[in-house]
Amino acid sequence: MAGVVTAVVGFSSSFVVVLAGLTAVGASPSQAASGLLVLLVTQALGMLWLSVRHRTPLILAWSTPGAALLASTAGVAGGWSAAVGAFIVTGVLIVLTALVPRLGDLVAAIPQSLARAMLAGVLLPLCLAPVTALVDAPLVIAPVIVTWLVLLRLAPRWAVPAALAVALGTVLATAHVDTGALAPSLTWTTPHWTVSALVGVALPLYVVTMASQNVPGVAVTRSFGYQVPWRESLAVTGIGTIVGAPAGGHAINLAAISAALAAGPAAGPDRSRRWIAAVSASITYLVLAVASSALAAMVAAAEDGLMQAAAGLALLGTLGASLAEALADPVEREAAAATLVVAASGVTVLGIGAAFWALVVGLVCRAVLHRPAAAQSP
Question: How far is 211 from 348, CA to CA, in rounded Å?
Answer without folding.
Answer: 23
